[in-house]
Specification:
- Two copies of one chain form a homodimer.
- In chain A, the strands form two sheets. Chain A has a six-stranded parallel sheet with strand order 2-1-3-4-5-11, sandwiched between helices. Chain A has a six-stranded mixed sheet with strand order 7-6-8-9-10-12, with helices on both faces.
- By secondary structure, the first copy, chain A, is of the alpha/beta class.
- Chain A has three domains: about 45 residues, no CATH class; about 120 residues, 3-Layer(aba) Sandwich (Rossmann fold); about 130 residues, 3-Layer(aba) Sandwich (Rossmann fold), CATH 3.40.50.2300.
- In chain A, helix 1 crosses helix 2 and helix 7 runs parallel beside helix 8.
- Chains A and B meet through helix 4, helix 5, strand 2, helix 6 and helix 10 of A and helix 4, helix 5, strand 2, helix 6 and helix 10 of B.
- Strand 2 of chain A pairs antiparallel with strand 2 of chain B, so a sheet runs across the interface.
- The structure holds a DNA duplex (30 and 30 nucleotides).
DNA sequence: CGGTTAATGTCAACCGTATGACATGTAAAA
DNA sequence: TTTTACATGTCATACGGTTGACATTAACCG
């Protein structure tokens, strides 16, 4: 690969001028710029980003740590983040933690060693800054992991309320909440539950809470868990699930066991992953605006130097009504 | 951040020794190694990967270009690749091309500028090397894009045959093939179709082929396309879909229109994404061993210098029988 | 015509690590 | 005691690009 120096020689200028053109184009005469660009084309020159990063003490990478890439919600997050990261001239370093704290810490340290411009974390770990410090902005999404780390979430509390209100308005009386996993403090799902419970109680309905110890998002045992719960609560007529996959599992169980959805049981999911629309019956759900969140998060990192970063930012959610209610 | 030099000073050795310890530990005395390690701990030292990469003219990044991150099959690919890449001490640079040739070329050029150790591409573009050259191994997965680029695929031809044979063995007589998108030369899906057609014809059954011009994997118009097709082919009793999502859409349509699956219509998908098991009825499908492919591809890149790379490698597929047949 | 300004050159240091060549010192083996 | 091997130091250069300080040149203005 050609280097800056070769380009400079070919264009009859010095490396300083070429470098200036790349970094402060205003300082260079238009005709010189053209000459240099021609030389670059001739030599098929491309700046070595590694060398640039070293010199600037900062790379163009943005690290994204997610618990899973297969889970449809995070897949959506990844795709959306990638788009915004690329649109801003940065590159995505993807890290899949599989919910393991050890891995998250390793990833953090790796990202530091690579001088990333920022880290986006959708994480399990309560406060990772206790383990690894990093000289770049860190933003957590989907949950609040520490008072020192900016968090960007969607309005889970309202999401829970909206679900409750819809079920009530449809005439449900015995309403359950299905928890997709272990409830962690600060985790978005727990706010969903709180909003949901509050709205029900305001209408004099006592929520029936299902929860279990499974901490993976996709589990082969969902059917068993659902079966066990419905055995003791056969009479529920409404269910709010903390994510769409759980909702799909519930509908699947219901269909198999001759329970009509939505006739006998109305089901609401959360996230609005592609599956929700594709399922049969299609699933009513609360959509998190992953797109808005991604846009905001990436912009925040890119303009970190210029703008202050709010410690918490909340985006609205939207009820998407489909066949399952 | 501390530098090599500071560590060396603290440990009472020179940078050369420290660098040697990091790269050729055999040359350094165990007790010296301990002293240096202690100094590193004291200073919270971490090698600057950027500087390393510059010096070595090669980074630890592996680029993965996929058309989509949301699509469940590619989500599976991403997760699997990430695991193997990380396990080998490399880092994943994720690129989502959205099927756009222009983007693929940009990504390629970006990866080159970042001196990646290798590129894995699940791509649309027929032969990207015509546009961008790169001094690193390139491997295409899921399809053959050029005679000059190693390809790693699963045995799509057999997959198609297996689907055909299952439908025949279940007694289907009027069997259709649903194509998820435009058929591109060399694309894995076209081999699936060929295997499928061949197996049917060998049994004296003429396949009914559905295909359309949609080139996105997830489209809102699948229902319309299916409806149009079934209008003129209402009598089919077996269907092989080129991917699981299409199979889900077909089942959804059938369910909505009172066609019993598998009673009146048996459906087979392809890929075995999570959805296949979750759907109701669960979907019989051909599983591609994404795990094996990922493992092989990443190992090939990591050991590129040592081993020759086969121009084509094919992994077996597996029939997963579920409720939809 | 002197003064100002814009465009570029010159020079050099720096980012943090790798590495080759060669010298030195030390301890074990002959 | 001499030889040999090993461990480390010393020195210097390279990787490719950035940047600040300052000098030079030519063109423009009043």
């Amino acid at each position: 690969m050609a280097t800056l120096k070769e380009v400079a020689d070919k264009a009859g200028v010095t490396v300083t001028t070429v470098s200036r053109m790349l970094n402060k184009p205003d300082m260079v005469h238009p005709s010189t710029i053209r000459r240099i660009q021609q030389a670059m084309r001739d030599l098929d020159y491309q700046p070595n980003e590694i060398a640039r990063s070293l010199s600037k003490k900062m790379s163009n990478f943005i690290g994204l740590i997610v618990p899973s890439a297969r889970n449809a919600f995070f897949a959506k997050v990844i795709e959306s983040m990638e788009r915004h990261i690329t649109a801003n001239g940065y590159k995505l370093l993807l890290c899949v933690s599989n919910h393991e704290r050890r891995k998250e810490i390793e990833y953090f340290s790796m990202l530091r060693a690579n001088k990333v411009a920022g880290v986006i974390i959708a994480s399990h770990t309560q406060d990772i800054t206790q383990s690894v410090s990093i000289d770049a902005p860190i933003i957590s999404i989907d949950r609040i992991i520490s008072p020192h780390i900016s968090a960007v979430c969607s309005d889970n509390f309202s999401g829970g309320r909206m679900a409750a209100e819809l079920l009530i308005s449809k005439g449900c009386k015995r309403i359950a909440y299905f928890n997709g996993g272990i409830t962690l403090k600060g985790m978005s799902a727990s706010l969903r539950q709180q909003g949901f419970e509050q709205a029900l109680r305001q209408q004099g309905i006592e929520p029936i809470i299902q929860s279990h110890r499974e901490d993976r998002f996709i589990s082969m045992k969902y059917q068993d868990i659902i079966a066990a719960f419905l055995e003791t609560h056969a009479d529920i007529d409404g269910a709010f699930c903390s994510n769409d996959i759980l909702a799909a599992e519930l509908i699947r169980y219901a269909t198999k066991n001759g329970i009509d959805v939505p006739g006998q049981l109305r089901v609401i999911g959360y996230d609005d992953i592609d599956l929700a629309e594709l399922y049969s019956p299609s699933i009513t759900t609360i959509r998190q605006s992953v797109e808005d969140i991604s846009h905001f998060v990436v912009e925040s990192i890119v303009h970190f130097e210029d703008r202050p970063m709010p410690s918490q930012t909340i985006f609205p959610v939207q009820l998407i009504e489909r066949e399952s209610t």
